[in-house]
Write a structure and sequence with these properties.
Its main location: membrane. The protein is mainly α. It contains 14 helices and no strands. The protein is 79% helix and 0% strand.
């Protein structure tokens, strides 16, 4: 078990290192000069050269990369070219919005998909099964940002139940802040719930045909108990796998949804830093996004060992 964890941790570190190198290289080849953006096009060449020297932009690419990584390992992510504040401060402030938003979206996605997928599998080829199939396909087909606009029109403009955008901050009260995240979380959750519903249905259907489920039913175990106590727990591995992969789509969707709802999260920060050519902030945000995806994949791999004890025996 410890050997497996050591191997996974080593793979995690190497993956993050490779991702950081790729992110730094891509950001470096983007067109535009941060110094020229900060000072304007009318700045003199001497002033531009002095600012490039101050920002370290005149250093070789390899030197700048290792300097960036070394500082990041010590918690120093540099200073934003545009905002003039430490990038770590920006990341912490924006994480306070994006992290709860993602957690709520994942929770809603699971709360919708697992019951729907399970009931659809239990009523295979019934009217309920076909209805759930249509609903899940609709969730998948409709873009998240379009769902966000519909939710604003219905619940904010039409009914006046939810705020149309903005984030008051957690210091204004838990419920006020949470209320501003409900509609964005629903917009993020519905497309992912459609995918998870179909995966859950297929996984539960496959497990229902296994010998141990038929044996449990033959011994007199009620169908409902056999479904929820035996079939669903053994069908969770593919669901958890897809859920881990969906984190990437949640992050990509957050960029659009946060801009629609005017939320000061990491997605909006990434968009703003790209438009303002704030390379350092963009590098750190993308690296943080990539790190979250890699770490989530690591957590998903470890969850297999707890969901299926047989894998622990194979891995030792």
């Amino acid at each position: 078990m410890m050997a497996l964890l050591a191997r996974r941790m080593a793979a995690l570190f190497l993956t993050l290192l490779a991702v950081s190198a790729l992110v730094f290289l891509v950001m470096d080849v983007l067109p535009g000069d941060p110094a020229a953006i900060m000072l304007g096009t009318s700045a003199s060449p001497d002033t531009l050269a002095a600012l490039r020297h101050e920002l370290g932009l005149n250093q070789p690419l390899v030197f700048r990369y290792f300097s960036w990584i070394a500082n990041a390992l010590h918690g120093d992510f540099g200073t934003s070219y545009v905002y003039g504040v430490p990038v770590s401060q920006l990341l912490v402030e924006r994480l306070a919005v994006t992290l709860p938003l993602t957690v709520i979206a994942v929770t809603l996605s699971l709360a919708i998909s697992v019951p729907l997928g399970t009931l659809s599998a239990a009523r295979h080829n019934s009217v309920l099964d076909h209805v759930v199939g249509v609903i899940s396909q609709l969730f998948i087909a409709v873009p998240g940002f379009w769902v966000a606009l519909l939710l604003i029109l219905l619940f904010s403009v039409g009914l006046g139940l939810m705020p149309a955008g903005g984030f008051p901050g957690w210091e204004s009260g838990f419920w006020a802040a949470l209320k501003s995240l409900v509609l964005p979380a629903v917009a993020l959750a519905l497309p992912q719930a459609g995918v998870l519903t179909r995966v859950t249905r297929s996984a539960v259907l496959e497990v229902l045909n296994e010998d141990f489920v038929r044996t449990a039913r033959a011994k007199g175990l009620p169908r409902r108990v056999a479904l929820w106590r035996h079939a669903v727990p053994n069908a969770l591995i593919p669901v958890v796998t897809v859920l881990g992969l969906q984190l990437t789509f949640l992050i990509a969707g957050a960029i659009l949804v946060e801009n629609v709802f005017n939320l000061p999260g990491l997605g909006r920060l990434a968009y703003q830093s790209l438009m303002q050519r704030d390379i350092l902030v963009m590098q750190d945000v993308v690296l943080l996004f990539a790190g979250l995806v890699v770490i989530m994949s690591f957590v998903v791999d470890l969850s297999y060992l707890f969901l299926d004890p047989r894998l622990r025996q194979v891995s030792t």
